[in-house]
Amino acid sequence: MAARAAPGLEGAPQHEQISHTKLSADDEWNLQQERMYKMHRGHESMHVEMVLIFLCALVVAQIVLVQWRQRHGRSYNLVTLLQMWVVPLYFTIKLYWWRFLSMWGMFSVITSYILFRATRKPLSGRTPRLVYKWFLLIYKLSYAFGVVGYLAIIFTMCGFHLFFRIKARDSMDFGIVSLFYGLYYGVMGRDFAEICSDYMASTLGNDVCSGPVPQQFYSGSGMPTRSLSDDICAVCGQKIIVELDEEGLIENTYQLSCKHVFHEFCIRGWCIVGKKQTCPYCKEKVDLKRMINNPWERTHFLYGQILDWLRYLVAWQPVVIGIVQGINYSLGLE
């Protein structure tokens, strides 16, 4: 009898293993939730203590970060940008998100080159144009990803995915990922553009530029040394091909209030990215309101609030959670 019972006892685990392999993804998830509930049953007081620790850590972290930003804004922005850059890299490698990692790597390489060009002294006359074009492209792509992601989420919540026989989970995942891509790279592009702007503004202000840049048209005393041709851009020194009243394929020709004409990307890079409010040639004051036409160039209140929230979520929330985990571990809470 004992010999006969042994095979039966050995067969039970095999039957259980086979049944688990036949479970669907939803059933497997429900089974995991049930096991988690049984594991934490009777630990309500411990859970309340852990929630209080988490809330206190959030409040303290928020106060510290606000004070840091108000007192030492430059160091806060640099550390936050570094966190924004490094924290997603850790999670993408840990969770095998190779698609995000490839996009992150491509963005990092190109942006590093742009940052290298913007911090060189003497500054090339083509750099403001290059900086403006790259970060304007990042803004447009991030805006498109954000809009598509938001519409996909609304599309799923309204049930329209059923008409196209798309699973709700797939449609929602696509919307959330696209929205995150748009907001994340929008924040990164805007912050790196601000760093490039500061470096370029200080360089241009010290008159240490090289190449066909505006300082070459004037001597050290401010007297003009040579005239500006009507078909030459004073920022990059290249010929202007598109007429003023002509629609360009890539960019248009822009005329300031002083009647001097430039490549649109050049003068926008000079005035907006380089933070110069005068004409590159005649030094007349430029009306920046005519040139500012998107949230990357002028931060709206709501857009700025969203970006600040995302910075905190990506850069500092993992740090706060790590601190809370350390406190819970030291107190023996699980």
Attribute tags:
zinc-finger, 3% strand, 9 helices, 4 strands, two-stranded parallel sheet, mainly alpha, RNF121/RNF175
- Helix residue percentage: 55-70%
- How many DSSP helices? 9
Strand content: under 5%
Distance from first to last alpha carbon: 46 Å
User: Could you give the order of the helices and strands?
Assistant: HHHHHEHHEEEHH
Spatial strand sequence of the major β-sheet: 1-2
What coarse outline follows from CA principal-axis ratios?
Answer: elongated
Largest sheet descriptor: 2 strands, parallel
The helix-and-strand class reads mainly alpha
Rounded mean pLDDT is 76
Task: Give unreliable regions as ranges.
Answer: 1-18, 206-216
Radius of gyration: 29 Å
The count of β-strands is 4
Domain RING-type: 233-283
Keywords: Membrane, Metal-binding, Transmembrane, Transmembrane helix, Zinc, Zinc-finger
Protein name: RING finger protein 175 isoform X2
Transmembrane segments: 46-68, 75-91, 97-116, 137-164
